[in-house]
Structures are given as structure tokens and as C-alpha cells.
Design brief:
Number of domains: 3
Largest sheet: 3 strands, mixed
Strand order of the largest sheet: 1-3-2
Distance between the termini: 117 Å
Structural class: mainly alpha
Order of helices and strands: HHHHEEEHHHHHHHHHHHHH
């Protein structure tokens, strides 16, 4: 009886135990779900806080006295992008899928990381360290090179190498960084010609134009130097090399292809600077990068002597004078070590020289099509004569004329001006150049 009772009792309790187990499992699942939900909501809250902090700084930046409108315009455009991202995150319900929350937070983080350095750049563009007199003439030059819709922001940066920033989602904006220690040296304005070459290279889609041809050129060069290639890559037979895009083969030459494309772009930009500013661009290059840094050569640039030799060739093509002493002053930086790297770099260097004549032809066509302004030796001489009398440049002189005159003029011609200390000559010349830039701007605005 007891046994039957026990047996019956066990049978009756089974559903109760099952229900308890199911309830416990549901509690565990719900607890984990809530934990995940709380964790992702914290992630979302952190992202919202980051965006609000960024917007606070952007708002403060807009209160600065911007010397020209494009800097404030780009802050407002960035601000709109961040506000839109913030609104998307705030609109996510508490029940939103965790992956959706993570994606939104990731997008917001990239936005903040991408644009924070740019806000810093724009903030420095308002510093009185900048020579604001150069902005108007350089903006007009940028319009001549890139089109009338181009926008320019110039800043003095704590990097001695001039650079340009281009943001794909801020189309039309060019951010030009010039070395802060040289902010008061208007003679170096000509280096902006090189930096304007980078967006022009992009606008003309020259990377895609040369990409396939460089690939063929490098592979043909490997065929011509097969013994050297085979010593470095003995596992690649001629039969295997016949399929150059096989992963085992492509890794042996794609680095050279990439370096060659970068060298072509940098050389193209040198040619843009040369066409726009003539001899003044050569002086600025020698000043900023000669004789060399003594550091390992960057494979993405031609070696220094080759770079100046190419500029000499191009100067002859465009009827500019080239100071031959610069070839004696510059020295190549040390080459990277290693036979494989050396061979890969030699392929890139070969490809550059193979297409260098094509680059000269390309920039010549662009200069003709766009009617790019060029320096004129007659106007340069007239400008030098004005400087001799401590008068700003004649009204017919353009930006390139003035900068070339500044390089050509020797302040020793002021030696008879006893009331002016020789130590002040460089400053006075800079002031004359900047006043000449201002005069260009005033005349343009009055037209």
C-alpha cells in the first residue's frame, strides 16, 4: 500500500517539478537577456555621451573668430553629421536588437575618431600665427586648379612636412597644413602648389588611369630581370609567373605596384607645383627637404636626387630656369635594407621613370585646358624693382610673380638705407610680400 502510495505520489509530483525547472530556466534566460540588454544600453549611453561631448566642442569652436568662412562651414557640416548620428542612437528603443545597438555605437565612434583631429586642425586655422594674407590668393589658385566650388582651409601645423587632408564625405574641401615654424615665411607659399596636386590627381582619376599600365610595366620588368627575381623568389617558376594574380605570385610584385603609384602621384604633384610657381617652387623644395633628412628613404617617394633631376627635366619643358646647384646640394636618403625590399623598390623606380614623360604631358594638357596662371619673368623683374624701393608689387603681378620676386630679390640692395638694421631686412621683405598679397585680394574684391 505504501509502495503504491509512494508510486502514485511520485507520479503526481512530476509535472510540478517540470514546471519548477521550466520556471527556473526562464528566470535564468530572462536574467541573461536583461544583463545583455543592460550591457548594450550602457554601450549606447556611452556613445551618446561621446557624441554630445564632441558637439559641445564643435559649438565652442564655432564661437571663435574665423578669418574666412570655409572653416566655419566645415564645422557646421560636421556638426550636422554628428547630430544625425546622435538622433539615430537616441531613437533606438530599449528593446532594440543588440547587434543594431553595437553597429550604431561603432558608427558613432568612427565619426568621433575621424573628425576630432579635423576639429583640431580647424581650431589651429584661427591662430594669429597663420599668415591670413595668403588665403585669398591661394583660394583663387585652388579654384583655378580644382574648380570654382572648391573650399580651402589653411592651418599652421606642428609638422615640418606640409600636407593636405582630403575627406571623401567632405567633398570639395581641401585642408592644407603648413609648418608652424615657417608660418611667417610667405616665400614658402609656393609649396601649396604640390599639395593642390593631390586633390587634382584624385579629381582626374589618374590612379585608375595608370594602375593597369604600371602593373604590366612591373611584370615586364620582372621578366627582363628574371635571374635576380628568381634568386629572391625561387619557388616561383616562369610557368607559375604566367598567372601573375595567383596569390603566391602577386605578393612578390604588388608592393612595387603600390609604391610606383604613390611615386607617380607625388611626382605629378611636384609638376603641379612647378607649373604654378616655376622657380619659386624649386627654391621652396630645396629649402624644406634639402640636402636630406638622413633617415631611411620612403619607398612612396622618388629618391631625392631623382626627384630634382625630374624637376630639372620638367622645368626645361615648361621654359623655367632650374638652379643646377641644387643637384649638388641634395643627397639621397639611405635606402631600406634587404635584397627583397631593394629589388621591389627598383621596380617601382623603374616604373616611375617609364611613365614620367606621360606625367609631363598630362600636366601640360591640364594647364592648357584650365588656363592655369603662371609666373612671368617681365612681371617678376618689375616686382623686384618695387621691392628695391620698398613698395609692394605692381598691380599686374600675380601670386607666383610675387613669390618668385621674393626669392630673387637680394636685401643687400637696401644696404644704403642706414636707418634700417640689416637684421630687419628679412622681416621687411616678408611684410612687402604679404602687403602685395593683400593688394591682390583688395583688387579682386573691388572688381
Amino acid at each position: 500500500m505504501l509502495a503504491i502510495s509512494v508510486s502514485h505520489s511520485h507520479a503526481a509530483r512530476q509535472p510540478i517539478n517540470t514546471r519548477l525547472q521550466n520556471l527556473a530556466q526562464r528566470i535564468l534566460i530572462d536574467g541573461r537577456g536583461r544583463a545583455r540588454s543592460i550591457s548594450h544600453q550602457k554601450l549606447r549611453e556611452s556613445a551618446i555621451h561621446r557624441l554630445r561631448a564632441f558637439l559641445f566642442e564643435a559649438k565652442r569652436l564655432k564661437t571663435k573668430p574665423f578669418p574666412y568662412p570655409h572653416a566655419k562651414e566645415v564645422v557646421e557640416r560636421i556638426e550636422r553629421k554628428v547630430i544625425e548620428c546622435l538622433a539615430d542612437l537616441e531613437a533606438l528603443p530599449a528593446s532594440a536588437d543588440p547587434e543594431t545597438i553595437k553597429t550604431g555605437c561603432s558608427v558613432s565612434l568612427r565619426l568621433v575618431m575621424d573628425y576630432t583631429p579635423l576639429l583640431g586642425f580647424i581650431s589651429r586655422s584661427t591662430s594669429t600665427r597663420n599668415s591670413f594674407e595668403t588665403y585669398g590668393p591661394l583660394l583663387r589658385l585652388a579654384h583655378a586648379v580644382l574648380g570654382p566650388s572648391g573650399r580651402l582651409v589653411i592651418s599652421s601645423e606642428w609638422d615640418y612636412t606640409p600636407f593636405v587632408l582630403l575627406y571623401g564625405d567632405l567633398n570639395g574641401f581641401v585642408f592644407l597644413g603648413l609648418p608652424a615654424p615657417e608660418a611667417g615665411n610667405p616665400k614658402l607659399t609656393s609649396i601649396a602648389g604640390h599639395e593642390l596636386g593631390h586633390p587634382l590627381w584624385t579629381d582626374k582619376d589618374l590612379k585608375n588611369r595608370y594602375s593597369a599600365e604600371i602593373s604590366v610595366c612591373i611584370r615586364n620588368r620582372i621578366e627582363d630581370t628574371w635571374n635576380e627575381y628568381n634568386m629572391l623568389f625561387p619557388e616561383i617558376s616562369r610557368e607559375k609567373f604566367a598567372n601573375p594574380f595567383d596569390p603566391q605570385v602577386s605578393h612578390t610584385w604588388l608592393l612595387s605596384w603600390n609604391w610606383a603609384l604613390r611615386q607617380l602621384e607625388e611626382t605629378f604633384c611636384d609638376l603641379v607645383g612647378l607649373v604654378l610657381f616655376g622657380e619659386a617652387f624649386l627654391h621652396a623644395c630645396a629649402y624644406l627637404i634639402g640636402p636630406n633628412t638622413g633617415r631611411l628613404r620612403s619607398p612612396e617617394y622618388p629618391n631625392l636626387r631623382r626627384r630634382f633631376e625630374n624637376l630639372r627635366t620638367a622645368a626645361g619643358t615648361f621654359d623655367y630656369q632650374f638652379p643646377n646647384e641644387y643637384l649638388e646640394l641634395v643627397q639621397d636618403d639611405p635606402a631600406p635594407q634587404g635584397r627583397e625590399i631593394g629589388y621591389s623598390l627598383s621596380l617601382a623606380d623603374f616604373a616611375l621613370q617609364r611613365f614620367f614623360p606621360s606625367l609631363i604631358e598630362e600636366i601640360g594638357k591640364i594647364a592648357t585646358e584650365k588656363h592655369l596662371p603662371k609666373p612671368n619673368y617681365t612681371r617678376i623683374r618689375a616686382c623686384c624693382e618695387n621691392f628695391k624701393n620698398m613698395i609692394p608689387a605692381p598691380k599686374e603681378c600675380n601670386l607666383a610673380d610675387i613669390i618668385n620676386a621674393a626669392w630673387k630679390f637680394t636685401t643687400s640692395q637696401w644696404s644704403n638705407e642706414k636707418h634700417i638694421a640689416e637684421s630687419d631686412h628679412a622681416r621687411i621683405l616678408s611684410d612687402l610680400v604679404l602687403k602685395s598679397f593683400e593688394a591682390i585680394e583688395i583688387r579682386e574684391r573691388l572688381r
